[in-house]
Structure formats: C-alpha cells, structure tokens
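Support reply, case 0932

Customer input (verbatim):
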Amino acid sequence: MKTILSVFLCLMISAATFAANIDGTWVGNVKGPDGNEMALTYVFKMDGDKLTGSVKSPGGEIVIANTKVEEKTFSFEISFNEMVLKNQCTFKDDDTIILKLVDSPMGDAELILKREKK
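Our regenerated output:
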C-alpha cells in the first residue's frame, strides 16, 4: 500500500511540475502561404489539470479548444475559416515546445516555441 501511495504522489508531483512549466507566453515563427515567416504567440495556462490558452497571429487571436495533457505532451485544436487545426506538442527539458500541426488541409508543419523572455 505504501508503495502504491509513493508512486501516486511522485506522479502527481511530476504532473504539477510540468503544469507549472508550461504556463506562460511562447513564441515561434512559421512560413505563411506566401513563403514569408509569420510570428505566432501562444499563451498557455494550466488550472489544475485543465489547459487553456490562445494563439495570437497578425490576423488576430484564437482560443484553443479540445485540450489534452499527458505527462510532457499535450494537444489542442484551433478553429478558423471553418477549418480545425490539430496541434500536438512536446515540452522539452531545454524549455522549448515542439509543436506539430497534423492532418491539416494546409499540410503538416512543425515549429519550435521558445518561452518569451520578460
């Protein structure tokens, strides 16, 4: 019983540590349809085990939806122009996030998000 409780507590501490690490503002660049780079800003907030946030681009701000968090990976969707874009992310130990856009009508893409310095 003590072993199960110890394992459970370790998992909860790991999840809380990850949740604290993802909170904040993250920036990255992606190539737009015209081939020029476009800056994107992601704002993530963990409230318990629930992830909320938004994506800011030159075209405006979009709220993230359908979030899922598991250990150091998380996913979410954004909707615009009647399209749903699925994002799969991995939080790295070097304080970056690898974001993959998957099953997109515009094609798959990957970008690296870095924590915004204040």
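We compared this against your earlier run and they match. Two observations from our side: The two ends are 45 Å apart (CA to CA). The helical segments are 2-22. Please reopen the case if you see a mismatch on your end.
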